[in-house]
Sequence to fold (632 residues):
Amino acid sequence: MTIYLDFEKPLAELEGKAEELRAMARSGEGVDLEEEAAALDGKAAAMLAQLYKDLTPWRKTQVARHPQRPHCIDYVEALFSEFTPLAGDRNFAEDQAVIGGLARFDDRPVMVIGHEKGHDTQTRLERNFGMARPEGYRKAIRLMQMADRFGLPVITLVDTPGAYPGKGAEERGQSEAIARSTETCLGLGVPLVSVIIGEGGSGGAVAFATANRVAMLEHSIYSVISPEGCASILWKDAEKMREAAEALRLTAQDLKKLGVIDRIVPEPLGGAHRDAEATIGAVGEALGAMLGELGGQSRDKLRADRRQKFLDMGTKGLAA
Amino acid sequence: MNWISNYVRPRINSIFSRREMPENLWTKCDECGTMLFHRELAENLNVCTSCGHHMAMRPRARFRALFDAGVFSEVAVPQPMPDPLHFRDQKKYPDRMKAAQKATGEKEAMLVAQGEIGRTPVVAAAQDFSFMGGSMGMYVGNAIIAAAQRAVETKRPLILFSAAGGARMQEGILSLMQMPRTTVAVEMVKEAGLPYIVVLTHPTTGGVTASYAMLGDIQIAEPGALICFAGPRVIEQTIREKLPEGFQRAEYLLDHGMLDRVTHRKDMREELITLTRMLMGLPPAVKGDLPAPGAALPDADTEAQQSEPAQG
Fold:
């Protein structure tokens, strides 16, 4: 069952009707309704294409947060072999909002790290909706340093509303953990490539995405603050999230123009959740291509280029 | 409900309140409510003489109090592209910038300077909370990079006074990218074997705390400073419970192992001198007030020689 977003309501009706007709035909009335159903399918496909042709930034935000969107675990299971999760920050706890471990990508050993949001109520609670606590970042730091020691490339998959704003997280140094994680990314002498697969929420995303190469899925977002948060601060009204999403330039297309990301990975029509397999495959190709670009580079060059990439950022503006 | 309460009392009140609050001369302590005379307050480094509350201090005032005889030279900061996103909320970003520049008399939210403290050459950067909440955008990023580069070129320690509500939303993702950018700057200083000392002042929050403000070799905070990633209001909304007294204040962070020291503003200069000299392997400083260094500063190569008095 597809879950429809509010702007997809007319589409839901069409697809629902087609489904109903088919169900009627199946229940053995003997009537052939396939032709009508196919006509509705055609209409629905046209509408889908129309809806997704020019998604507004706010609609993209909704697609990026779609509950059925493939999550980190789906990518890890499909794209990697021998994935062996490694747990804990060795200081305080294991944070399930971040998964990480050794795995093989194209048979080559790598370290893969990402935010996991969970796929149903129970796992979402366990994963804290992908909002990491300091332990999550400290685990990532530990794993990145291990990869660095053994010369393994690091792959990060970013999908978080942001770092968790909680009492314990603050007491245990949320900001320090994020700062150190960014610092660790910058110091790595191995390739670091990152894909924003859903939400790239502020510092919680930067902590993993300070990479040699950064890709974004077509309808994912990457922003300094959520549109709702920005609206409530600058417009004093959280309901102005559409305007805020527009102003923040948080879409993959705008960020590519600004030189903040390197490539956009196309999504199937109607968003990643409509064809998870194709989406995951496309991300796999992008990862392979990005790792290929960095292959054979020395530790010093990888580090120096990564730093320069971020130092140079902001020299490219949006054309008016 | 008669003419005495409706007409006479407001009139009397307005006369008295006007007399009680002559503008500019008196500042009310936001902690204890004591009225403080501006000159006395400035002499006391903007610390309330009654309760010890540390009020905001603008960068120029801070540098005058920090450097020997108040002498410093400004380090030029490369101007970033203005309004890269063409950002517009209820106001246009360039209009907000102009208003902030007019209100503060400063170009942007960070000032970088070099000079001597206790005859120890240092580079210092200070964030200006009164300029759009000290928010970190491309200029602040450029300022920190310029400060780091100057520190490395001249082999000086870098001292950074932080004060910010976080990243500047009007620069969107480019403000977020200042987190890695400023972290690169910090790394340059550290790799050159030079000390990087952060003085966290009220308030230091958000992306600023989650980047350069938490990466110091030594982390010192001013008493009572709010230091956090997520602000108390956001947390209360998330967990729906009241936070403990003093949560996220400097003393609380010290207790939780997040800071090296909490130091009163009047002792800060001496402490910075002591620490930087030890880390730089220099002999102990001669204590006390020092006259200005020789007529010409050894490497005063930028526009401003000495700052104009500014209020804190």
